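I am writing to request your help with a piece of structural work I have in hand. I set the record out below, with my sincere thanks for your time.
___
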Amino acid sequence: MPGEVFEAYGNVYREKNDWTHAAEFYERALKTFEEANVNLVTRELDEERAKFYLLRGDAGKARAILENLIEARLKLSHQIGIRTAKLALCRVRLAQNDSKDLTRDIKLILDFFHEQNLNYDEANAALLLAETYFAEEKHKEMLPFLQRALDLTARFDYEHWLRGEIRRNPRLFAVEEVIEKLPPDLRQEVQSPKSEVQNQSDLTTSITHSSPAPITDLTIKTFGFVEIFRDRSKPFAPDAWTTKRARDIFCCIATSRHRRVEKEILFDEFWGEEDLAAIEKNFHPTISHIRKALNSRQSFKQNFLVFRDGAYQLNAELSYSIDTEEFEAAVAEAEKANREKNARHFRENLERANELYRGEFLAGVYDNWAELRRNYFAEQHARVLIALAKLSFSEKGWSNALKFAGRILQTDPFREDAHRLIMKTYAAQGKRSAVVEQFEVLQTLLKKELGVAPAPETRKIFQDLTK
């Protein structure tokens, strides 16, 4: 439809800050839709026009368009459209410093998108909520929602959208905890004023001047966004991994026991029921792609992948840094230190494991083998977090106890041990009303989603804390 074409051109010119041409095409789109008797209430044109006016500096005009749109959609009971328009209005309100009940309103919209599995809209809402907290200088409250936006980006491949958001508001992402979770090619987009945070980012992304040689032959990071490099100063070409399957096969081998996987298992995991002849035809070129990728733009070639006794494995003559191995080693050391009553080593290794876990294992990969490992590492990380929360509680570090327990509930809101610890922490601070609120949140969640009541242990602790 021509109206949609004109709208698309308007969006393109808007992103280029070419206000004259953007306005022209939006008007042509508006006129074309009206002539065709298209009901604009069900279209996105007014939301795009509102974004245009906001970027141009006319927040008042943007607000008027959105308020009229919301009113029209309410009459049609267009529930999803009402929320998307309200979210756009919240962005305008933030620009106008109209912060009254703003975080509450965004949270309601965010919850709706989450319940409806509208992942892209949820990512937008989570990021706007993070931006709102950032504007209010509430750093702690900001991070979980920013992390949620990054998780959704990784899972559903919204990297193009995220790049635009980073360019629009780089300071929001110029936080050490956030920078390390960004895909490597997006980190360079973060260009905040030269501050301690930015200097820290510079160190992590431009080690070329201080590290003349890599510490290990190959580094493999699979938590969160995948990173594979030999030397940070000599990254592989952007198109080195010609197929995602090649990268995933390599990650499968690298994170398997003894860093090896039998050839037949690779066939089953990555080609399933396909014809054996077709598998053989595709398999060896894929292995070749892996070897080429690991030598892309490097000073000298190394053979990292070898075939021995019916299995593909990492070349044992070379050295590796693999985050899954380091994570498991840190967890094992923490358990050992706990048995030996060595509190300092216990905390150090828990913190090390938590630092290594940058996000879920191979975000965005949904093969069976990856799901199994993802669930395993997520459960291990939850154990690390609950241990850190309990340790912080025992040391009367209330804010850290709440932070670590809260992170568990972000990924598994049904964890009653985390809810109990949060209630205990509030009680230790004399916040009885917060204890009651936390219990009611859990009780409502369990009844609504699972049709059950909190466990007897949880109910008893709640009664003891609220006597």
User: Anything to note?
Assistant: The CA atoms of residues 219 and 229 lie 5 Å apart. Residues 368-394 form the longest helix (27 residues). The mean pLDDT is 88.
